[in-house]
Amino acid sequence: MTITITETPKVRYYESDSNPGLSGEGAQIPIFIGLSGNTSPTAGIQKFKSYQAAERTIANGGIGTNPATNPLLAVLKDYFTEGRKNEAEDIGIPYVYVIDLGAIGISEAADVKKWTDAMEIAKTKREISAEVYVGFKATDDKVKVISILNSALNCIKQDNEYGNPRIAYTTFIGATDAQLMLYTDDEQDNYIQNTRLGLCEPKYFGRILAKIMTTPYYEEPGYTDFRSIAPGEFNNRTPTIENNMQDAGIIFIKDELAGPEIHPRINLAVSTAFAAGQDARPNDCLLHARRNVDQLIREVYTALYKQIKRNETETNIIYCQTDVDVIVNRFLDAGHMMDGTAVNVVESNANPYRLIAEGVSVPVNSTLFIGFSMFVEAPNATTGGN
Q1: What are phi and psi of 39, to 5 degrees?
Q2: Mean pLDDT, to the nearest integer, of 188-216?
């Protein structure tokens, strides 16, 4: 039998479609791609460790000085505000990456190419786990915006094959709740639903992102309070509107009530795929499940890479399986994954140069509803009601 070798040696990860859902510790690293209004923005990727570093003139290495007229700077201001540590044990923000697209639009082919070129450039920074698209407005052409977002998701899907799974986030400046929900509504002519896309409400978009990025990958981002948002700012939505937004796959902030206390938190970190409805939602429609599995993918991918170009002996395959088992067991022992999670490494029956790793991941759930009731018993005759 003649074996044709058609690819360079590599590990490639394939998102499994047989089950439509399942495909670090510390702050995840995002890249912000979007509009600043600058007529001559700095080309390529910039790196900022603080808002003060970003809030400089272009000549001095920043992206501008006025967040009121600069959408990209405004989001970064919110991001670093929320990311500021209040306690020593808080997860901090080491740095962010930025691609400043200046003052382009979304209609002209040349402008759209600048968006897609930025998506390709973003691949070069391998530690990035989130892509944030900034500058879309509620008044923009919906079809064209969705087309750009689909391009971003396709680019992310391609990069997934090289062990670098990412999630995209965006919002629409000036959008009402009703307008946001139209973007994920499958009864519309144009909509978007994807487990790797988070659509956030526009107010405090950057703070929502910082809350997600500073939440451990295995934890629901709405589990703890915002660091920089005071109680009382997000108490105007009715329970019906909140339910509708959650069902539409929108990430929004909510004042949660716990007796006399008010906790400003993310309602639920859903992806836009949550809008598919109760019976059609993929298994990874919640972001904490998707992020949890992505972390497992990154670590298993790195372990498998050791085998590339190493002799394919029975012993080495056993080593490969052992390395993977150690990672999976660590996730299980930590309670991040549940029983049923496993990855098996076997030699391909069709090609002796190829190993196959197939697995199932079962991320831990989070409690989303607690029913509480109490029965009032008649007072005891011997003690009265005291």
Answers
A1: -80, -25
A2: 96
